[in-house]
Structures are given as structure tokens and as C-alpha cells.
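Hi, here's the filled form for the chain we discussed.

Project: internal
Contact: R.S.
Residues: 198
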Amino acid sequence: MTIKAILFDADGTLMDSIASWKIALTTVLNRRGLPYSEEDFQALIPLTTKEGGAYLKEKYGFPETGDEIADEYLGLVESFYATEVELKKGAREALEYYAGKGIPMAIVTSSERILIEAACKRHGISQYFQGLYICSELRTSKRNPDIFVNTAKILGAEPAETLVYEDSDYAIDTAVKSGFKVIKVIDEIKTVDAKEQI
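And the returned structure, exactly as it came back:
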């Protein structure tokens, strides 16, 4: 079936930004006398920043509120997105390829709008997307297929006609079960795989 729309995750898919979040978590924990925890990082991946703050508050009993921890965490990564975060290898080429075919694209992310907009602006890729859909703004998560289904609909496509680029297993599982075609991003975007499906 012809691909009529493409949905991109941001962190770890379009943007090589995972290290920035690990550095931020390390700083948040180190400031409170704790070492970096990979277990905590994996737990934070599907969460919004606000939910992540609440998670750290509940687990460690920090004196700050969950929102205060979330604000601190977000503040640490903001400068990375504005000045340091790079695109994943092959991302720009993939966007140019799909744009050349006239296929509408959107970003669906658990990150905050201010971060993704800053990185897109810095790399000059904002024009490729018809929308930026933020889980926290929509009060949902990628465990709920609605964020994928509704975004595809806005772009004029059904799930079976939509290609999703993702790196997180939980989001991939949601998309696959909802009938989307999915490309899992590991180390780099496999543009050749995408071309074979179109």
C-alpha cells in the first residue's frame, strides 16, 4: 500500500539527544548525593517531564515538589537542544527524500515543545513538518494509540498508510498493534528500508 503520511519520534530518532537527558538526570541525582541510575533513566523514557519529576519525587522523597524537579530537569536540557543536539545520521536525507515525494510529515513526541522547536529551528528542518504533537499537551502518551491514529488522520492517512519512525519499544508496540508500518531506529535511520516500502 502507498505511504500517505509519516510520523517521526524526536529523541533518539530524528535527534541524537539521548545523551543530553542522561547528563541532565545525572546532574539532578548528583546534586542530591545520588549516583546516575540507568534504571531510573529507562523508567523516565515513556514519561513526560512533569511525570518524570513526580516519579523522582516519589521514589527518592526529595524535598522539592515533582514540578520543581521537572523544571530543574527541563532547564538542564534546554541549552543542549538549542546549542548542541545534532540530528541522527541520515535524518536530513530522509526528510528531504519524503518531502520530494510530497508526503506530509509530523513529529509525535513525549518531549516538551520548547526543546523540539529549538532543535528543529537550529537545524533548519521545521519546514518539513505539518505539525508537532506533544504527549503532555494532548494529555496522553504513546502507550495510547490515539496519538498516532489522530495525527495520521490530520495528515489524511489511515494507520496502514502511515509510516512511523520510532526508537522506543513501548511506542513501537503501540504503533504496530494499531496497524502502522514501523521502522525501528537503533543507531541510524535506515533510509533505504523506508524507500523500499514506498
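Let me know if anything looks off before we file it.
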